[in-house]
Amino acid sequence: MSLKDQITEDMKTAMRAKDSERLGTIRLLLAALKQKEIDERVVLDDVAVVAIVDKLIKQRKDSIEAFQKAARTDLADKEAAEIIVLQTYLPARLSADEVTAAVKAIVAELGAELGRPAGPGDMGKVMGAVKAQLAGKADMSQVSAAVKAALAA
Question: What pTM, to 2 d.p., does this model score?
Fold first, then answer.
């Protein structure tokens, strides 16, 4: 069963259970998926679905930060609850050590391809390779910090 099918099934389950908060979040997710499919005239695979879920989680985190600055804890709590629902559709996240090890391996590969050690000027190349391998498996801000550290060494 694809991730998109799983989300649809979860929506049906939430409807039967009359779980309105979960249902609302799943409907927002399905709307975002449908919008992407219509805009780009494609059928989304699991990788694209994970990317959209990641994007929605990032939006929720930004909203929580804004709501907390405005002292609107009620809205911040609602966004936090949506994040919990959305995170169920992400694959298991890598630990900080696993991210660092993966980044170091990619930097070493790139250095071998270039015939020289990869340096800070190769940040774009490294990030492109890292995104291809770790998309959806790790927080990209954490990955970016690991890449900067690996290239500076």
Answer: 0.75
Owner of token pair 């099918």: 5
CA distance 37 to 25: 19
When pLDDT is averaged across residues 110-125 and rounded to a whole number, the result is 78
* CB-based contact 14:23 (threshold 8 Å): yes
Angle between helices 3-16 and 46-69 (to 10 degrees): 60
Please state the three-class secondary structure of the chain as a single string.
CCHHHHHHHHHHHHHHCCCHHHHHHHHHHHHHHHHHHHHHCCCCCHHHHHHHHHHHHHHHHHHHHHHHHCCCHHHHHHHHHHHHHHHCCCCCCCCHHHHHHHHHHHHHHHHHHHCCCCCHHHHHHHHHHHHHHHCCCCCHHHHHHHHHHHHHC
**pLDDT tens track for 124-136:** 888 888 887 877 7
Contacts 24+ apart (CB under 8 A), 33-41: 33/4, 33/7
